[in-house]
Amino acid sequence: MAFTRTATGKHRRPRKTGIRTGANIAGITTVASGVVAGIAGQAFAADAGPASQDTGLTQAIEIGDGIAEHIEAQAQSQETAAAQAAAKAKAEAVARQEAARKAEAAAKKAKAERDAKLRAAREAERRRLNTFVAPISGSYISTAYQASSGLWSSGTHTGIDFHASSGTPVHSVGSGEVVEAGWGGAYGNNVVIKMNDGTYTQYGHLSSIGVSVGQKVTPGQQIGLSGATGNVTGPHLHFEARTSADYGSDIDPVAYLRSHGVNV
């Protein structure tokens, strides 16, 4: 077989080598492209990264702001509710105080009115008990005090006679206590009362007696009925005023009654 030799130094590289070199160049190109791509990707990532991060931070801030606003609104609502509750409690307390003040004022007014009525009633009762009345209503004096006649053992009339038919109501002229109630000799059925001022009054010739010894009597209280018992010429009421319960201590009964406001 004949071989052809080329000139020294002019040998060509085998095609295989060339192919390898091309592959290397392609690889280099590919690597370069990858580097560029990588760099580009990094750049893109670098450009895109902050935007992505900013978006997340913004969302976080917005969420945080939303929560804070919700908490603040809730706190404000609670504060408003607390203020309203406090205002309501204060208003209720003021209302209770006002109601208590009004109730106390009403109670004081009612008490003052009751006390005034009680004082008025006591005063009226005091006046009533200290009031004197005539022993027989609507009557008149038929025989005067110290009139002379043989009908009386002393020779003079020791009291006054009030005109009255038998059975006419006879009243105590004032307040006092009965010290005698029964038969009195010439006085017939009689009642003697010790008055509250210490004087005595006598009611004689009664047809009936309506009180008993020790009984308290008041002005105008009925103590018996007029009659004609004892030393009399007809029915009437014999009335005496005395300084004691004993006979002979008589005083002017007209002056006595008039001094106590009784017009006779």
TrEMBL record:
MF term (GO), any: hydrolase activity
Q: Is Hydrolase tagged as a keyword?
A: yes
The superkingdom listed in its UniProt entry is Bacteria
Extract the coiled-coil ranges from the record: 95-127
State the UniProt keywords alphabetically. Coiled coil, Hydrolase
Q: Which CDD domains match?
A: M23_peptidase (cd12797)
Read off the InterPro entries from this record. Answer: Cell_wall_metabolism_enzyme, Dup_hybrid_motif, M23ase_b-sheet_dom
Per UniProt, residues of the M23ase beta-sheet core domain are 156-247
PANTHER family per the record? MUREIN HYDROLASE ACTIVATOR ENVC, PEPTIDASE-RELATED
Q: What is this protein called?
A: Murein DD-endopeptidase MepM/ murein hydrolase activator NlpD
What organism is listed for this UniProt entry? Answer: Streptomyces demainii
